[in-house]
Amino acid sequence: MSVRARIFAVLAATAALVVATLVLNLYFLGQMGRQLDRAARLARALEVAADLEGGLRQATAAGAAPSGVRALADGLAELTGAEGAAAVREGVAAGRHAEALAALGGLRPDLRRALEDTHAALARLRARASLTLSLAWAIVLGLLLAGGGLLASRLRAALLELGEAVAAIAGGDLSRRCRLEGRDEFGGFADRYNAATQALRDLVAELVAAAGQAREAVAGIAGVAGVLRKTGHLLEAEATGIRGAAEEQRQQMREADEGVRQLRQAVEQVAQASGDVAQGVTRTLELA
Prior knowledge:
5 helices
């Protein structure tokens, strides 16, 4: 059950209890209204009885009933509906004032007891209504406190767990899972959190694998570079040898050129000498 559903459940139970309390209090109010009406009638009947008793005493003393006595007797009978009130009305109607007084004397204590009973019933109804209302509000408060306490406990536990999980990720521990369970918002958040951390773990694994492959590639490149450096050293040595041989060849060519030049000079000298000899021979022959 989600947090929102739990809150709605607590509120619905509270509302149902409040409605039931209101209905029960309305019932008690109706009962108290009837008891108050009965108490008012009894109090009025006692007042009428007192007036009627005074009128009957005057009638007994004077030998004639004053005006209004019969109306009071009728009103008393209507207010109470008791047999004693009917007897009083019959005595007044028949002119038997003494009998009416006797009946009235027995009726008034009954009216007082009925009024006291009515007041006692009214007090009991008030006490029940007050007790019911107090119990209802206590239960409502208990429900609210219990629901709020459960929600607060759930929220506190969820926040602590989420805080520990986030702190673990901040510390580099991607293996830490959020251990919140349930079908509420916190459970859904925990599922999404665990899915995100799993995705991060997969990404880190892929990055580690890629880094290993990169290291292997760099190691291969380093090996090739070493081979190339060795090859470069060999080529440089070979070029140095070639340059030395070429320099030696050029030196030999320069020496050969010098020998050819000297030979050419010698040939020219020999030719010059041969020409001189030939001229000398020619002159000798001419002189001979």
